[in-house]
Design a protein that fits this description.
The chain is α/β, with parallel strands linked by helices. The protein has helices at residues 9-16, 25-34, 53-63, 79-88, 111-127, 140-149, 159-164, 170-186, 202-205, 218-241; strands at 3-7, 39-42, 70-75, 92-95, 131-136, 153-157, 190-194, 211-216. Helix content is 48%, strand content 17%. Strands 1-2-3-4-5-6-7-8 form an 8-stranded parallel beta barrel, surrounded by 6 helices. The longest helix is centred in the C-terminal third of the chain and has 24 residues, at 218-241.
Length: 243
């Protein structure tokens, strides 16, 4: 069964825009857990424009009371990032090749270029009992490199799949992801996926066997706003109409 891990970065972004703890990242995550979500993902960035270090530690404390829920921390393996991860010891750490000011993740690792750094941090994660995952394009050559690094999983960067969904190139693009996931499985590497998956395209993507986890944030939050707005407006109108 595929685990849904909800990325709560956008909740932190909303909170940070007002300067008080509303919406609460921890409170929202607790609500997700009550609804049946089995994974929480955060991607703290150096400028703390959404998830902060404080959020990471607060979520870690809350999740100690919810051992059925996995905690996944994403990010570039800088010294500060790794120090935090090794202190928190989440269930999973997803290493992403982002530059400090990058708006959002937009490519996977070029493993040969970063092999010494990745070898070091993967060893640190392994020694701390943290499952590792490498953010990767659906590239067979890179997946072969992953097996030599002994990372536990890859997270396939799915923007290309999402951008071609329902278009003329959907099937050949989908096939690249299917083949990449199959190769990873043959090498004993677990497969996660994430980025721009949504309610329209997720079912198609999960026709690929043995996807262990999907990490979804931006689309899920937007869809929640769209789906819930009718009920919220109805309640506001009832209050003002009664005044």
């Amino acid at each position: 069964m595929t685990v849904l891990s909800v990325n709560v970065n956008k909740i932190a972004l909303l909170r940070n825009s007002r300067g008080r703890d509303f919406p609460s990242v921890v409170g929202f995550s607790e609500q997700l857990i009550k609804l049946g979500v089995k994974g929480i993902t955060v991607h703290p960035r150096p400028d703390e424009r959404h998830i902060t270090r404080r959020d990471v530690y607060a979520l870690s404390e809350m999740l100690k009371d919810n051992p059925q829920v996995e905690f996944n921390i994403e990010g570039y393996p800088s010294e500060d990032f790794m120090k935090m991860v090794l202190e928190v010891c989440p269930d999973q750490c997803t290493l992403v090749p982002d530059s400090p000011g990058q708006l959002t993740s937009d490519h996977g690792w070029n493993i040969p270029q970063h092999k010494p750094v990745l070898q070091q941090v993967l060893s640190e994660l392994r020694n701390s009992g943290v499952r590792s995952s490498l953010f990767l394009d659906p590239n067979l050559e890179m997946i072969d490199h992953v097996s030599r690094l002994a990372a536990d999983r890859v997270e396939l960067y799915t923007e290309d799949f999402a951008s071609h969904y329902a278009g003329p190139e959907q099937e050949p693009v989908f096939e690249r992801y299917r083949v990449a996931a199959e190769r990873a499985g043959q090498l004993g590497i677990g497969v996660n996926a994430g980025h721009d998956l949504d309610l329209q395209n997720l079912a198609k993507f999960l026709q690929i066997p043995n996807i262990l986890e999907v990490s979804i944030g931006h689309a899920l939050i937007v869809e929640s706003l769209q789906t819930g707005i009718a009920a919220v407006i109805e309640r506001y109108l009832a209050i003002v109409d009664a005044s």
